[in-house]
Amino acid sequence: MTTTTLLLLLLSILIAGGLSFFQYIYKAKNKSKIGWFLAFLRFSSIFGILLLLINPIITRNTLETVKTPLPIVVDNSSSISFLNANEKTIELYKKIQSNSDLQQKFDVQSYHFSDDFEPTETFNFKGTQTNIDVVAKNLKSIYKNAIYPTVLITDGNQTSGNDYVYSFDAANKTYPVIVGDTTTFLDFKINQLNVNKYAFHKNKLPVEAFLQYSGTKSVTADFIISQGNSVFSKQSITFSPSKKTATVSVLLPADKIGLQVFKATIASKEKEINTYNNTKNFAVEVIDQKTNIVIVSAINHPDLGALKRAIESNAQRKVTIVKPNEVKKLQDFNVLILYQPTTEFKTIFENNKGAGINTFIITGNNTDFNFLNQQQNNLSFKMSGQKEDYLSVFNGQFNLFAADNIGFENLPPLQNAFGTVTTKGVVSVLLSSKIRAIDMNAPLLAFTENQGKRAAYLLGENSWKWRMQTHVNNQSFKKYDIFMDKIIQFLASNNSKKSLVVEYESFYNSGEAIEITAQYFNKNYEFDEKARLTIAVTNSKTKQTKNYDLLKGNNSYKVNLDGMKAGSYALTVKELNSTTTYSGKFEILDFDIEKQFVNPDVEKLTQLATQTQGKAFFPDQVDALIKTLLENDEYRAVQKNSVTKKPLIDWIWLLVLISILLATEWFVRKYNGLL
């Protein structure tokens, strides 16, 4: 409290005392006890009012000791249990976490991770994935700009996420504690299988297998690919201490249409501790139709290559790029992409009037818009010779097909001629355009469907930048390629509109996220937000059925079926109000990625420790780890002076007290006839 405040309080006492004495003592004719009581009431109320006006503040300085955080992060995935290291892991955690010297020096905090990261002091080692990268990301978020050490108790065998070695902050030391038996056992492993999800009927299905051997002697093993009781391929592979890996390529026949499940196995006469990683199941959907797409362009542009790569990411698509005068027979193609059409495209437009092939028209700086106005009647163009950059705005109400917003608002602008674009007839706009912050109320990506013929319009060039930007944002082209594939799928099909559309994969690996998406449309083919969708999933072997509700999301209904066991399943999606149903099937392949390891990844964890200037330890070195942490002078507790300012009085209660004092004074005066 300041000196000024104290002087004001003293002055308030004098004023309150003087006024109450003058009115009830000095001026009073009769000096009675009632006068002194009334003087006290008046003094208290006046002083209270002055106290409200002064509002004295008490300032308090508090010294606070801030310790360096010490996150102890424990691997909670099932690989720890599979390596028989769960008890040792808990023992190590308790020894570090309960050490009194560490608790005195550090703010010890406990976390666990598998596919996710969360604070906890209990562990069950049932996680289905190991993502050490998520540890680095969360620690950076929790301890922003702090200097701290990290104790990481793990086997280092990551099954998902980015490479964790360079994910951790290099300025903060990481001390991995490596759990699991480091003894080298004889082990054969199918490290990776490369196979396409789709194959075409009567074609050959290429399979590439990467095999790994761990051992100290020369051995021979057989690599076998089978389906049921049929063996399609069997090869003998020789391994030795100097040759511990092998790559095998096999061509399988795609003779049966539909989902085909195969088994890849590596086997030998040698005895192994872990035979689970000797087998991998894989599935291929054999289809009897391939979509042929032709891109017609009179110019060279990066968009052409980006379109081809995005479309052909689906093995069901084949893209051919040609000049306008090189198109011989339109009937050979399912979708016609016309890139920046000019008068050179006149023959193609005329021939397509008879062929009726669905078209995807992409405009740009070289487009002849007067010619384009003559060749189609869905959009009308009044364009100038000036170039302009157009940003995109996603339309969440678009309902021709399920389309996700891949971050269009943050993608680079497309370039097109400046002008006015108006729609004619029924045009569904997925992306509208804007120039800087001004909405143009014009389409950027639009679709039409008229008498069974479909068309798409992308009004701008440089869409290759979209594909590159989505890769920067997501470290993958997948989101953009799926978006482009949905456009091609819409154009490649002339099927009539369905009221219930369900999307899912034909097969999943055990432990993967299983998400099924559905859309229900009313009679006007508008997305029905009041639909009630349920799904029944039946195991084809046990005949056990489970029922789930689909929850409404953004322009679709979704359900997650995570945690289901391997096997074949039939699904039936039903809309309860209309009783509309959809049926299908999918396969969950038996594959537990957490059981693929026989040893911890010592090399990777040692590399992580070196990268962060820490040190890797084994379970029998935990005392050395504790000593290292205690002796490191970088991590010292810091004293901070915390200044708190608090009002001396609570003004609400003081106001109530003043009211009571004034009311009491009035009643006493009234009772004694002094009013």
UniProtKB/TrEMBL annotation:
Transmembrane segments: 6-25, 37-58, 651-668
Sorted UniProt keywords: Membrane, Transmembrane, Transmembrane helix
UniProt-recorded name of the protein: VWA domain-containing protein
Species assigned in the record: Flavobacterium xueshanense
